[in-house]
Amino acid sequence: MAFERQKLVEAVKEAKARAKPRNFTQTVEMAVNLRDIDLKKPENRFKLEVLLPHGRGKEVNIAVIADGAVAEAAKKLGLDVISGEDLEKLKESPREARKLAKKYDFFMAAAPLMPKIGRYLGRYLGPRNKMPQVVPPTMTNLEPIVNRLKKTVRVQLKNNPVVHAPIGTEDMEDEKLAENAEAVLHAILNKLERGENQVKSVYIKTTMGPAVKVER
User: Fold this and answer.
1) Consecutive H or E run containing 13
2) CA distance 4 to 8
């Protein structure tokens, strides 16, 4: 691959060094600029879920929309549960629905509630790339899915030829952040017709810091 691991490590290191200290732990982000891609064609756009080998470096907010067995299983894991009844209330309050969509990183949902979710929450979750992970209504072990979601980032290519992705936090080791960046890059390259030939540039930055170009 054109972007060697060591070059990613160096960019991560520099991005962290150039970031001014803040009173919160900053996210480390990656931007992949693409070229020669016609985004007017729907087939060239994509949404991806990428599993970061070293996780996101921070807590991930997950809500479970369910009743019955799935709701009980979610409560045992300490997850926030939104019941079918709660869902009904959202149709009267677009403001609450919007707040809910913003609050959580990921949603899981029992299959029978998906039509209502589409109706009352779809317009807020869809654009944010947060439509729920669907589970059977009898599922009682949510742990494997929850553990996977905690290490997952969602990325999408939509209207502009650039893909943004969080790859961890500034307190993570440089090497681990570079491996996470590599995982995102691999996933994006696999979706491109001509792979790395369509990558114009890659940048790494912290939330508030300047962007550092990854050298090839």
Assistant:
1) helix 5-18
2) 7
Name residue 50's amino acid: V
Which of these, 162, 196, 160, 202, lies nearest to 181 by C-alpha position?
202
Give residue-wise pLDDT tens across range 132-189: 999 999 999 999 999 999 999 999 998 999 999 999 999 999 999 999 999 999 999 9
Query: What is the value of pTM for the model shown?
Result: 0.87
With H, G, I as helix, E, B as strand and everything else as coil, classify residue 181.
helix
Alpha-carbon gap, residue 123 to 131, rounded angstroms: 10
Report residue 98 as tokens.
């919007």
Q: Using the 8-state DSSP alphabet, how is residue 76 labeled?
A: H
Distance, C-alpha 197 to centroid of its chain: 25
Q: Strands, E, within the chain: which ranges?
A: 27-34, 46-51, 62-65, 80-82, 106-110, 133-135, 152-157, 162-169, 199-206, 212-213
DSSP states of 85-144: HHHHHHTT-HHHHHHHHHH-SEEEEEGGGHHHHHHHTHHHHTTTT-PPEEE-TT----HH
